[in-house]
Design brief:
Immunoglobulin-like, 3 domains, 4-stranded mixed sheet, AhpC/TSA, elongated, Peroxiredoxin, about 35% helix, Glutaredoxin, Thioredoxin-like_sf, 10 helices, alpha+beta, 15 strands, about 25% strand
Length: about 375
Amino acid sequence: MRNTVFTLLRGPWIYLWLALGLLAACHRTPSPRSFTLSLELSHLPNQGIVYLDALEINQVKTIDTLNLLTASQPLTFTGTIPEEGLYRLRFPNGQLLFLVLSGGHTTLSGDYNQLSQVGFSGSSASVTLQAFLHHLYQENQILTQETRTYDSLRKSGQLSDSVLAVRSQEIQTREQALENYILHFADTTQSPACAVFALSMLQSRDELLQAKPVIDRLLSRFPHHQLVKDLVAAYQLIAEESSGAPLPVGSVAPNISLPDTAGHMLSLHDFRGKYVLVDFWASWCAPCRQENPYVVAVYQQFKDKNFTVFSVSLDSKKENWLKAIHEDHLNWNHVSDLKGWNSAAADLYHVEAIPANFLLDPQGKIIAENLIGPALEDTLKKILQ
């Protein structure tokens, strides 16, 4: 499930992206805008604190509070803001409500016990944001249920690996459709705050890096908006950190020598002379577990044709690692130093996200990378048949 806001964008975002030449000019300071936010909510408790927080790329700042015990009616936040921005209300029951403020008078109305169904007037961007979140929530509910069903079927052993592979592909297709929806929304919304919020839903470094064209256009559309510039700065920092990209196709794969499931040292170089899929995964990685039926099916199909799999786990608990190997029927060679993301092998191969894999030829050269789903079988068919 996708997390709520700015989970990916963390750290000291001190670099601004000057590549487009749009930030080289003097930065203007936006004129302050007055705002009023009225809360017309039935069943609101008589005590507790309501917080109004400003959401920035690298921090959340509380800009105002209302004490329900002493606040006068109607409940109203007032103040000034520099430009359109992302905000959230935190209620006494722990619920959060995201909104966009751009100045003027915004009214929030509805039932406190049904905050997901409240309405906004005076803020069309908040209406747009709520519609986006509603769609995201619905899709996440479906994906969560499909993933649970898949995991249950996989563990029960009721379905063949080929059928599980089809189910896994269906989940991946839905996940890709959701990512496409997020990118399209960010690329077409007329609200810079909504666009930044949407892009913050991208869950992985790879997803964010693939969003570069959308981020480029966003900066072109809103070159002076501070939230957009902060997002671009965060993107640039992530891109710089990822400059040590996975090893290029054509290079010789570095040797990996780690303990196998029995604690004996096993080296990748021991398999020279075979086509080897070096597969990075972990028991806790749901996409990896969804991908495993594809790898199992391919292994069964090509294991007698000079092909094998060399799996490197990013687990930290041996019992979880061994259990996943058994549950997923991964009947090939496995190694791990049980250091999680501190794995020496992951660092050696510049692995930033899993699942990740590298296909090696008999001389140990990388001939393909990240063959996910049917792409793995298609590639091996061309090589081995």
